[in-house]
């Protein structure tokens, strides 16, 4: 087999393995009544099995271990993914079974990210409008904040069928391609492993979902996306901007919603339906149009901007601002974080 054929075979095996594990988790959840029962804060209307994200976790971690064992991935990246990913997924699994206090989740997430940052090594300088900004002092702190936010961001945004899976596959595939094209090393293989593991689950989760991923899956996805972004930036600093662009749909909606809710004095860590994507799903009459819109935005808008930045045709900050501009308009159009506006009857 050629290397390309080996990669394709491994990817198909990961997709198939994730699909099969999801089926097993769904069967177990149905037998044990591990169901997500709708309430006033839910975006779904029928009880649905949950916990399917563990299929993503197990498949992705197995791929990382195999890639590390065969020498295709550097050991630091493998150890970071296995250690931090396992901890975040475990906390999510426990929270899925019986809700954990927010402070314990935060401490666990913080500890997982400390492990990632410790294994990263020196933080490279980042280009800002043509000037290289040295992050040796504040770099680890900023990386920690970014990764912890990404864990929670994906948890917040996993509220309708298929959206977290679509976002992950799009960002991971796009990030892997750009990492391979302009970076160095083989870290892009880890991004493809994450995409393949998520794709197998997405078959079951695409609207109408037959199973939800739960906090174990969403937190793990956020952690892995942050890890990949930070690791790729060591290979080529401009790739950090590319990852910010690629997760733009989630970054803009979640951040805007959080800021507006905090400004209103709301308890930001409590479940709610105030995100722009949640309101959009109610306004458009279902989850599928919003999930497909997320797919289209990623492929037709965010991928091209990320590519322009990666190839140096557009400055990273400028590209990020231009890519985010229509997303910011969209989240305000759909009243992200504005419960009063969302409570008005939909025309």
SSE topology sketch:
Layout: H1 3-32, E1 35-36, E2 48-49, H2 53-69, H3 75-97, H4 102-120, E3 126-128, E4 131-133, H5 139-157, H6 163-182, H7 188-205, H8 214-235, H9 239-246, H10 248-263, H11 276-284, H12 287-310, H13 316-333, H14 339-343
Antiparallel strand pairs: 1-2, 3-4
How would you write the strand order of the largest sheet? 1-2
Determine the N-to-C terminus distance.
Answer: 58 Å
Shape: globular
Total of domains = 1
Tell me the structural class: mainly alpha
How many DSSP-defined strands?
4
**Helix run count:** 14
Helix percentage: over 70%
Please provide the ordered H/E string of secondary-structure elements.
HEEHHHEEHHHHHHHHHH
Major sheet size, sense and barrel closure: 2 strands, antiparallel
Q: Give the low-pLDDT segments.
A: none
Oligomerization category of the chains in this entry = single chain
Give the DSSP E fraction (strand runs of 2 or more residues): under 5%
Rg from alpha-carbon coordinates: 19 Å
Task: Describe the fold and architecture.
- This protein has 347 residues and is an all-alpha fold.
- The chain has one domain (3-126, 135-343).
- Helix content is 71%, strand content 3%.
- The protein has 14 helices and four strands.
- It has a two-stranded antiparallel sheet with strand order 1-2.
- Helix 5 runs antiparallel to helix 8 (214-235) and helix 6 (163-182) packs parallel to helix 12 (287-310).
- It is globular.
- The termini are far apart.
- The relative contact order is 0.14.
């Amino acid at each position: 087999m050629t290397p390309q054929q080996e990669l394709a075979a491994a990817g198909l095996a990961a997709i198939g393995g994730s699909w099969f594990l999801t089926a097993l988790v769904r069967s177990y959840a149905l037998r044990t009544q591990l169901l997500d029962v709708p309430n006033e804060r839910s975006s779904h209307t029928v009880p649905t099995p949950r916990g399917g994200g563990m299929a993503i976790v197990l498949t992705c971690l197995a791929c990382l271990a195999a890639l590390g064992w065969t020498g295709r991935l550097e050991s630091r990246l493998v150890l970071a993914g296995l250690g931090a990913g396992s901890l975040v997924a475990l906390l999510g699994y426990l929270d899925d079974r019986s809700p954990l206090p927010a402070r314990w989740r935060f401490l666990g997430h913080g500890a997982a990210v400390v492990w990632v940052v410790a294994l990263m090594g020196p933080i490279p300088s980042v280009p800002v409008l043509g000037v290289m900004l040295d992050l040796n002092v504040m770099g680890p702190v900023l990386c920690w904040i970014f990764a912890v936010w990404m864990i929670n961001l994906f948890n917040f945004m996993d509220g309708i069928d298929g959206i977290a899976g679509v976002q992950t596959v799009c960002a991971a595939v796009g990030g892997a391609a750009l990492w391979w094209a302009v970076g160095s090393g083989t870290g892009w293989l880890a991004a493809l492993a994450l995409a393949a593991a998520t794709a197998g689950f997405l078959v079951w989760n695409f609207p109408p979902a037959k199973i939800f991923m739960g906090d174990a899956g969403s937190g793990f996805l956020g952690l892995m996306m942050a890890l990949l972004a930070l690791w790729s930036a060591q290979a080529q600093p401009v790739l950090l901007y590319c990852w910010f662009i690629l997760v733009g749909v989630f970054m803009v909606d979640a951040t805007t919603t959080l800021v507006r809710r905090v400004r209103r004095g709301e308890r930001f860590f409590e479940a709610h339906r105030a995100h722009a994507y949640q309101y959009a799903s109610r306004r458009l009459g279902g989850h599928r149009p919003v999930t497909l819109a997320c797919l289209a935005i990623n492929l037709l808008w965010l991928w091209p901007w990320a590519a322009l930045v990666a190839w140096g045709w557009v400055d990273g900050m400028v590209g990020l601002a231009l890519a985010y501009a229509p997303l910011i308009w969209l989240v305000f159009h759909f009243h992200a974080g504005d419960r009063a506006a969302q409570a008005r009857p939909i025309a």
